[in-house]
Protein: DUF5683 domain-containing protein
Organism: Gracilibacillus dipsosauri
Amino acid sequence: MNKSVVEKLMWSIAFPGFGQYLNGKLFKGTFLLIIEILINVQANFNQIILFSFHGEIGNAINHANYQWLMFYPCLYFFSMWDAVKDAGGGKSHYSFLPYVFSAFFVTVGLILSSNLTIFGVLLGPVWLPILFVLPGLITGIIIKKIITILNKPSRS
């Protein structure tokens, strides 16, 4: 990835829609930004983050509106993929797979976040989904490589 693509990715990680603004996609960036704010407010996400950083996982779980919070991973990873794609990155036909699988795994982590403990610790709706990013990313990269290899024309 070139420097411009990485910059767009980092801004999208910071706030969905910012990568689109940098790519000159003002309508798309504004739409993603409005949707992000709507989901953030409706899910009580900032309060959940605050409780999680203070180690108050029970309060984070109690304040989470999971029906709204479930939208966040897809919005977040779509915003990242779209910003990278529009910046000229991810030229392979399957470059979206790491983002898709990350969104899927983070969503699963979110679903399990109020019950699943790791080493006896309940991580809640912030830390557990964050831990699920890595397996999603790895799964997406592996599947992308497998599909790319299977679709390579054979030399005869």
Observations:
- The chain has a mean pLDDT of 93.
- The longest strand covers residues 117-118.
